Amino acid sequence: MSNETIISEIADESQLDHLLSEPTPAVMSAVQHLDGDWMVLGVAGKMGPTLIRMAQRALETLGRKQRVIGVARFSNAAEQEKLQRWGIETIRCDLLDEKALAKLPQAPNIIYMAGMKFGSTGNEALTWAMNTYLPALVCRRFPDSRIAAFSTGNVYGLAPLSQGGSIESDSLNPTGDYAISCLGRERMFQYFSQSQGTRVSILRLNYACELRYGVLVDLAQKVWNNLPVDLAMGNFNVIWQGDANAMAIASLAQATSPAFMLNISGPELLSVRRVCEQFGKLMDRSVQFVGSESPDALLNNGKLGHRLYGYPRVGFEQMLDWIAKWIMRSGRTLNKPTHFEARSGKF
């Protein structure tokens, strides 16, 4: 049994980061069989710090001496300092600067996390540069590396609830500049995987969650603060960020040419209404709803990842309990709403 399943309450961010970076057996197996250094591009986002720490912890446990390098602009210096305290090498780099990109060290194992979502509306040119042009630059710079590239389940578009979530072979129907540019990102990785033999895994994520951000945090905050909850996007998937981190790292073992496609998602199709009602019971709050549920939503089917890398260690019931306690005692959040309820594709 994982430590996460027997902890009744997460005390602080240090313990949270430790849990989010705990390697799984699938991570240990992948790291054991992948030689060479590791590099995470765009490491300073919501998931990057605990993901790179998980890779580092796996290497340390195995007694491996590969470098682990986190690359980002690090506009928030505190994120760079935290990684350095953990013993992770960091490099400041604007990845769109081709001269700076060319100076990065070679790394056989790369996890690509750079991209733009929030603020994409009204800033479409930069959105396309980050989400579609930059992947081409990275593929040309690192043709011989294995690359696990984050994408999004938004590329599928809205799917009927009766379908049970989109699978990797489904047709794609993205809406809005963000989702369409992310499909462009996938196409660039696919093109260079085919044309130059770069081994790639493409990761369609919906949605990673921990105690400081995520769909469940958004909903918990609305319930706790007696704010109305919109039911238009009435259903969603969620996966504990530690499990999403693990699947991303482990997917490098399946990186192939042509590219390997993988959904990263939890096993449940969750109801916004029922989740908020559960938060209401945990927090002793009444819940206000507006609107009504639509017959479709952005939903991923994550069964392939579960079969390859193991069932998620932390279920949504455990996440609900941890998040409710965190919010009620005013635990720090990132103040970065997911806007998962947006049905127009505008972020």
Helix content: 25-40%
* Beta-strand content bin: 5-15%
- SS elements, strand count: 15
CATH class: Alpha Beta
Structure, explained:
- Helix content is 39%, strand content 15%.
- By secondary structure, the protein is of the alpha/beta class.
- It has one domain: Rossmann fold.
- It is globular and about 55 Å long.
- Residues 1-5 have low confidence and may be disordered.
Short description:
The protein has twelve helices and 15 strands. It is of the alpha/beta class.
Topology:
Elements: H1 13-20, H2 25-33, E1 38-41, H3 48-62, E2 68-72, H4 77-85, E3 89-92, H5 98-102, E4 109-112, H6 124-141, E5 146-152, E6 159-160, H7 176-196, E7 199-205, E8 208-209, H8 215-224, E9 229-230, E10 235-236, E11 239-240, H9 241-250, E12 260-264, E13 270-271, H10 272-283, E14 289-290, E15 296-297, H11 303-309, H12 316-328
Parallel strand pairs: 1-2, 1-4, 2-3, 4-5, 5-7, 7-12, 8-11, 9-14
Antiparallel strand pairs: 6-15, 10-13
Helix pairs in contact: 2-3, 2-9, 3-9, 6-7, 8-10, 8-12, 10-12
